[in-house]
Specification:
By secondary structure, the protein is mainly alpha-helical. The chain contains eight helices and three strands.
Length: 211
């Protein structure tokens, strides 16, 4: 197989692995890699086999680009779904990503839970509220056959429970989103071209520039 054939085959694998991106994003990445291979081969610093080995498998290279672009989009988005997708992809890259993903899940669950309680109050007015008693202080809906209220445990907010939960839930969602956007500025990813330039035949262990 000629050098051109090996390069074209690698780029074809990369293009397939980038499925799901827009055509423009996909072609920009493929062209970037093509130019990198051409420049490295042209200056005589490495042969084609060494350059391709330095870039790593096409599927892994595509995964790095997909994660980087997703985090970049999420940094400027207020969509919880997009941010959760980005933090999940980040979680697959290391411990820092796992921590950020857990923060996202807990923060959005708390915010969504309070909003859900606000919606449930009109449906179950006698069972939903802020219950206070000995060793008890909880925003919840009481279910089952146990008495809803007892002399030792009673609901204190009444219909104020709805706006209170709505405000707490909204603030939790906003705070979680802002915190995650801040944390995603710390995201570092293996810069494929920088790695391939620094090492011949294998990926380096260094981290590149932030997305």
């Amino acid at each position: 197989m000629t050098n051109d054939s090996r390069v074209n085959d690698y780029l074809a694998q990369l293009r397939r692995a980038l499925a799901g991106m827009t055509l423009a994003e996909r072609e920009d990445i493929v062209e970037e890699i093509r130019m990198h291979i051409r420049e490295r081969a042209g200056d005589g610093s490495a042969n084609v086999d060494e350059i391709l080995a330095g870039l790593g498998p096409a599927e892994e290279l595509a995964g790095q680009y997909r994660t980087g672009l997703l985090v970049q989009k999420a940094r400027h988005s207020i969509s919880p779904l997009l941010i959760l997708r980005a933090t999940l992809r980040w979680a697959l890259t290391g411990v820092e990503g796992v921590v950020v993903f857990l923060i996202a899940v807990l923060g959005y669950l708390m915010g969504g839970g309070f909003l859900l309680l606000a919606l449930l109050k009109p449906i179950f007015p006698q069972r939903t509220g802020l219950w206070v008693g000995p060793d008890a202080f909880e925003f919840t809906i009481r279910t089952g056959v146990l008495p809803v209220s007892t002399p030792a445990l009673h609901e204190v907010l009444g219909w104020w429970f709805m706006p209170v939960c709505a405000v707490i839930g909204s603030l939790a969602l906003i705070a979680t989103t802002k915190l995650l956007q801040f944390l995603m500025k710390r995201f570092r990813w293996r810069t494929p071209l920088a790695q391939a330039t620094l090492a011949t035949g294998a990926l380096t262990a260094g981290w590149g520039s932030p997305v």
